[in-house]
Amino acid sequence: MTTAPYEIRPIGHVESSITGREAAPKQGFEGAPDAWLVLDADVAEGIRDLAAGDEVFVLTWLHRARRDVLAVHPRDDPRNPETGVFSTRSQDRPNPIGLHRVRVAAVEGRRVRVRDLEAFDGTPIVDVKPVIAGGR
Amino acid sequence: MTTAPYEIRPIGHVESSITGREAAPKQGFEGAPDAWLVLDADVAEGIRDLAAGDEVFVLTWLHRARRDVLAVHPRDDPRNPETGVFSTRSQDRPNPIGLHRVRVAAVEGRRVRVRDLEAFDGTPIVDVKPVIAGGR
Asked: What are the structural domains, with CATH classification, of chain A?
């Protein structure tokens, strides 16, 4: 099936104390620090109803990823058997979109403080969505 | 912050009996029919470890969406107060990526049958990720 490519335009970026690939925890719940979502001014209206306590999915663009990889050793550990990328959360995948479930700690203008976000400082944000019933 | 646009290259498409905007259920759990994820041949290796029973997030590109919308009446119901899009699951949003949590019913080659996928027939698929602990 022939489908056109589509263009992602970042809506903001992450501010985080995680700056190097080695320092990033493999999953947020293993202890990522608090971080900020900094929305671009032209889309900031879209977060006007976000509030402390909300649970959201943050979608990011993993701009350091390799896109030509279809199988990986999960968690970059060679002892884990090579696994198809769509059964892993590897950042290396054809469309390197990160999916992060986080809780909003505070909203200050177009800055949103969130808990347990596993993302490098400067990571582009592509979307924010509420978590709905059943964690969907 | 200046960030380049990024290019999404679909990895496949949805086959579904949902063909019109009006017919689409607003959330999968309200009763979407089974559907198929049809992976493109060049990325099919990435699903080699998917199996019946797996719970996955499917990310789609909502190619009929409007991208210039920052507030909507949730569920297209004018009785619902206008809400910033990042607090809704509206398909109209700056980067119209759909997020669908579904269960794999069967894998047949590069076709994956899934339960409760709310997506139009022909919707481009951009990623598939396992659901991990805590529904993340």
From this structure: 16-68+96-135 (2.40.30.70)
